Amino acid sequence: MSAILKSPVSRSLPFGVILTSIQHLRNGTTLSADMDERSSTGSETAMDDRPAIHPVDETIGSEILDTGRQQNNEWDIPCEEKCGVDLDYGHFPAQGRSEQTDKRTVKRTLERRFECTECDYRSASKANLVKHTRTHTGEKPYQCDQCEYSAAQKCNLDTHIMAKHTKDKPYMCGECGYRTADRSVLTVHMRRHTGVKPYECDQCDYSTAHKGNLDRHKAKHTGEKPYICGECGYRTAHKSKLSIHIRRHTGEKPYKCNHCDYSSVRKSDLDRHMLKHTGEKPFMCGECGYRTADRSSLTIHMRRHTGEKPYKCDLCDYSAAKKSHVDRHMAKHRGTTLLVCVW
After folding, report:
1. Most buried of 161, 183, 253, 285, CB within 10 angstroms?
2. What is the pLDDT of residues 285-301, one digit of tens each?
3. pLDDT of residue 81
4. Where does the C2H2-type domain start and stop, copy by copy (predicted)?
5. Distance in angstroms (rounded) separating the CA atoms of residues 154 and 142
């Protein structure tokens, strides 16, 4: 048995024949052999009132016996239930229902019939359901042969190999030359140029180009912090932040500079460090022309122009543009001296 839509016979089968064959196998009824009549009336349910002549199988989709025969444009597909019904349509008229109409009907008949037993996910493809199920089971059958990485989908493994091992980055931004190994990453990157922010918060006017950013933002509304450090009890709303925090305990610094022995816990720290080697200062103030290699430094600098002082003392009305200034101020209340490393 093979899928009718992929069988040698079915590559040339009229879509109306495919559809009616599937319907017969599902409900076990006899069929109208006159495709001209079905075409003129537009009836796709004429057989529904007929008595079933063998047990029905509503799960049948696009699989029937690969034994259809064509002779002089006549189609003869025996039923796999051996019920005696021959799906013999005689001459299939060229002026019958349009092939495009039949394609849509077949698609409606087959679409989204595979259901996940864990959630409400549905798909027209069994293969897609298998991939989806791995999100529940945690199964990652695709293993990298160069490191310990594994993935639930082969496309993710391919992207990993290109990004981490071969360094191949075939997807390039036509605006700025940015390159990546992942097509979806390029799609997200392009939103920087277009300004598209498709992910919107349903509780405020926040919107973002990244779904992950929206998930993190929503945690501000709920106050939920489900991720907890087993070493010190640190809690966070973001799994990625917990991973970074854990490195403080393990001492792991996976991001390494190619020009010196510098390494860091976070990639953003390495990116800032690399600008010391290149001398690049891509972030510029539109008010005074101040330039910096660090986006956060520009954010702090802009407060000189706006007068914003978001960091406030809990014991008096002091406020500052920098958190370090509030820390030094708080030391005065405690009667201690805050030591600052000059290196």
Report:
1. 161
2. 998 999 988 888 899 99
3. 46
4. 114-141, 142-170, 171-198, 199-226, 227-254, 255-282, 283-310, 311-338
5. 6
